[in-house]
Backbone:
């Protein structure tokens, strides 16, 4: 098996989830059937295979790399495969009443198993449901403070009876005091579903700042740098830039978008921004090398520095560092993992070939 054991449930639990078509495991793993050569989402409604004929993968691209084809019924490569219905209903309830305190008893009354909810949120948001709720309320308090609300009002509206408790929670979440929040730049984030697994997108008023796979090892370090070095207050939320990148990603994975239009904001050193600008110039469906980029910058001996700046790119796919390969044609490193890099290059190559065929 090719599993991420620290993230995925045990084998027996995956077999059970597959047989019962458990939607709680959407995006957590994929089932690949050896006898048919097809891979599916756990909730696929097709007739279930014998467990001994199935192997499990953490990502869709790993199924493709192993030679499996996507199921035409459940469409595991469909970027529109969003949160399961029971999660969507809960999120709508939270939007309708953001001040409600959800206990395990209340969740069970809504037909939601707290352990499944915890697992789903950890997998897709990197935190538990209750931690997400607290951060969301604090994000609303942040917005209120920036609009002129007093700290006392923000604390009360967030459900905190103790002002000191609110200050402690606020500073722990945003790495700034409530008093400084009025002068900080909110960085809103949301989780996005893609065929290659969940991603996190972050944007401020000037544009998209971060787009990364949730399992990228450097993600925590990148977010901490945005908070500590650039003064961002990170909170769950949504804005026009996040909506735009969600729409554009869906079209990209469908092979219908070759150039992203979402506005970008790129905090970083002058050299890093120069490298990132060169990344943006690599044509869709083509590749370049560190040496080529260094030469274009007038620094032919700076291949290593270019590689470091490439690795510090916070905008996966949009700034296409996946199109940078080794001088010998090897895929080299990629923060999202080489299978994903190979998938993205295959996707773009196939889309270009289809376009050429249609043109003739």
Residues:
């Amino acid at each position: 098996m090719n599993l991420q054991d620290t993230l995925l449930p045990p084998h027996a639990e995956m077999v059970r989830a597959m047989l019962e078509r458990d939607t709680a495991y959407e995006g957590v793993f994929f089932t690949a059937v050896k006898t048919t050569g097809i891979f599916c989402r756990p909730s696929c409604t097709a007739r279930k295979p014998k467990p001994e004929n199935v192997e499990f993968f953490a990502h869709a691209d790993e199924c493709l790399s192993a030679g499996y084809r996507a199921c035409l019924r459940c469409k595991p490569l469909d970027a529109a495969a969003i949160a399961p219905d029971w999660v969507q209903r809960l999120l709508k309830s939270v939007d309708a009443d953001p001040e409600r305190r959800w206990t395990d008893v209340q969740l069970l009354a809504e037909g939601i198993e707290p352990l499944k909810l915890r697992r789903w949120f950890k997998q897709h948001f990197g935190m538990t449901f209750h931690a997400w709720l607290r951060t969301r309320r604090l994000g609303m308090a942040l917005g209120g403070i920036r609009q002129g609300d007093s700290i006392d009002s923000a604390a009360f509206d967030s459900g905190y009876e103790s002002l000191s408790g609110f200050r402690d929670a606020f500073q722990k979440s945003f790495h700034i005091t409530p008093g400084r929040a009025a002068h900080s730049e909110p960085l809103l984030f949301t989780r996005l579903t893609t065929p290659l697994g969940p991603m996190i997108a972050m944007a401020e008023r000037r544009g998209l700042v971060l787009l990364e796979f949730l399992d990228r090892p450097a993600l925590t370090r990148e977010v901490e740098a945005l908070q500590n070095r650039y003064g961002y207050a990170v909170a769950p939320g949504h804005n026009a830039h996040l909506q735009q990148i969600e729409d554009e990603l869906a079209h990209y994975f469908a092979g219908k978008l070759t150039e992203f239009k979402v506005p970008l904001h790129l905090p970083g050193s002058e050299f890093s921004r120069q490298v990132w600008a060169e990344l943006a110039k690599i044509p869709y469906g083509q590749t370049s090398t560190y040496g080529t980029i260094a030469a274009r910058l007038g620094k032919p001996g700076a291949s290593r520095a270019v590689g470091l700046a490439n690795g510090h790119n916070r905008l996966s796919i949009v700034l296409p560092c996946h199109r940078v390969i080794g001088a010998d044609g090897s895929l080299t490193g990629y923060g999202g993992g080489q299978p994903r890099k190979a998938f993205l290059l295959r996707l773009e190559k196939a889309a270009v070939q289809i376009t050429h065929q249609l043109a003739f």
